[in-house]
Write a structure and sequence with these properties.
Radius of gyration: 28 Å
Shape: globular
Structural class: alpha+beta
Largest sheet: 5 strands, mixed
Strand order of the largest sheet: 1-2-3-4-5
Strand content: 5-15%
Helix content: 55-70%
Number of helices: 17
Number of domains: 4
Number of strands: 7
Distance between the termini: 54 Å
Length: 431
């Protein structure tokens, strides 16, 4: 805090002097030769000032513990509502967010810190009020299902799309969180003073953390090595089509293992032309973000689209097709930008016995209908004018509670063209 305020004052002073065109301070603080030693001196000064009066730090720590401890009942209540609602809502709503594991691990980390704030060192001098002891006990119990659901989320993602670097780190975090959850639960149920044993759980988990860090820094459990091996195995086993495989990921996120894997795929006699073309494009790419603002790769698109009915998969030809914004009038953003997500519904909208694909942005809005042509190309057949963000619309669509009534208005065929009725009164909005 002292170092931060020190720099804030320097920047304020530099800004003030800039007003009168005196810029020496601005140039000085931007020079690394000044910035590094000045920051070190500021931190050392703060440590010296607080070391002179250790009572100040002790009092501040106690105050922070008290403030944090009274936040525990709130998070315990929210997590309790979440867990009790899961049997009704189901887990599928979590899976379509694509960040459920990260959020659950964050909740587990916060709960762990707040439980420790209530317990402190477990002595009578710091005995917590009864309401906080109850909240801490409930928080310890809630840690178990929260960590379990996070582990399930990562496991399902790995089963679907293989390991990536971020999923390896997430799995390591789940392992650490599981140690805390198991240790705290054991401390809660064993006989003796309340939560006595949480100290041993903290120390033991600290050694687990060190072991995990050491493992991740060795070739045996290098996240990049695991991710590359998993993705290549997925490609060779046919788990993902060669045309939809993300060779770019190996090139820029697989470190030397990814580079070696690309070279091996290039030299492998079993690699077909599609694989070799993808490898060549990845090796020739100029940077990790090349093409990121364009259509996502097949792998990214498969992850960005959640299909309904649950269990249906997006067709491989749809995933590998080029979806350039210039080729379509206002296509859904999930097809042209890897940061957006869509829900896909398989519906026979034209009554020909073959399902079309209805894409809707994950938070509702318009709907885009895609139909497979006789030449094997997916084309945008039109849009549905209704507002999918209305209350209950997306939930009912996802659970199959809809019908396909006959249209009131017919198309107009004239001069070899078909003119469809659009912009009907009440076509948009919630009715």
């Amino acid at each position: 805090m002292f170092a931060g305020l020190f720099w804030l004052l320097l920047w304020l002073g530099a800004g003030l002097l800039d007003l009168i065109d005196v810029r020496f301070l601005h140039r000085l603080i931007e020079d690394a030769g000044f910035a590094y030693p000045a920051t070190g001196v500021a931190v050392a000064a703060a440590i010296h000032l607080t070391d002179v009066r250790p009572g100040i730090i002790s009092g501040m720590r106690s105050l922070i513990h008290i403030v944090l401890s009274w936040l525990l009942p709130m998070i315990v209540l929210i997590v309790g509502i979440f867990l009790l609602s899961l049997p009704v809502t189901g887990l599928h709503l979590l899976w379509r967010t694509a960040h459920a594991a990260s959020l659950l691990l964050a909740v587990a980390a916060v709960t762990t810190v707040l439980v420790n704030a209530v317990y402190r060192d477990g002595t009578a001098d710091f005995a917590a009020p009864r309401v906080l002891r109850i909240a801490a006990s409930l928080g310890v119990v809630e840690l178990v299902p929260i960590v379990g659901i996070a582990a399930l989320a990562i496991g399902l993602r790995v089963d679907q799309h293989g390991w990536t670097v971020s999923r390896v780190f997430a799995a390591a975090a789940v392992l650490v969180a599981a140690c805390y959850a198991a240790g705290y639960l054991l401390a809660l149920v064993r006989r003796g003073p309340w939560l006595r044993g949480i100290e041993r759980a903290n120390v033991a988990t600290s050694f687990v953390i060190l072991a995990v860090f050491l493992g991740l820094l060795t070739p045996a459990a290098d996240p990049a090595k695991i991710a590359v091996a998993s993705q290549v195995a997925l490609l060779k086993s046919g788990g993902i089509a060669a045309s939809a495989f993300d060779y770019h990921y190996l090139r820029w996120h697989g470190e030397r293992y990814g580079q070696e894997a690309l070279e091996a795929l290039k030299a492998d006699p079993a690699s077909d032309g599609v694989v070799r073309a993808g490898v060549e494009r990845a090796l020739a790419s100029a940077g990790p973000w090349e093409g990121s603002i364009h259509a996502p790769t097949g792998t990214e698109l498969a992850e960005a689209i959640t299909t309904y009915p649950v269990g249906r998969k997006m067709p491989d030809d749809f995933l590998r097709q080029s979806w350039r914004a210039a080729d379509y009038p206002s296509p859904p953003l999930c097809l042209t930008n890897a940061t957006f997500r869509c829900d896909a519904f398989f519906l026979d909208l034209d009554g020909d016995g073959t399902d079309e694909i209805l894409l809707v942005m994950a938070r509702g809005g318009s709907g885009w209908v895609f139909k497979l042509d006789k030449d094997g190309t997916w084309r945008m057949a039109g849009t549905l004018a209704g507002d999918f963000s209305c209350d209950g619309v997306m939930d009912d669509l996802r659970t199959g509670k809809y019908s396909l009534p006959s249209s009131q208005w017919r198309d107009l065929a004239v001069a070899g063209h078909t003119i469809r009725m659009t912009g009907l009164p009440g076509g948009r909005g919630c009715h």
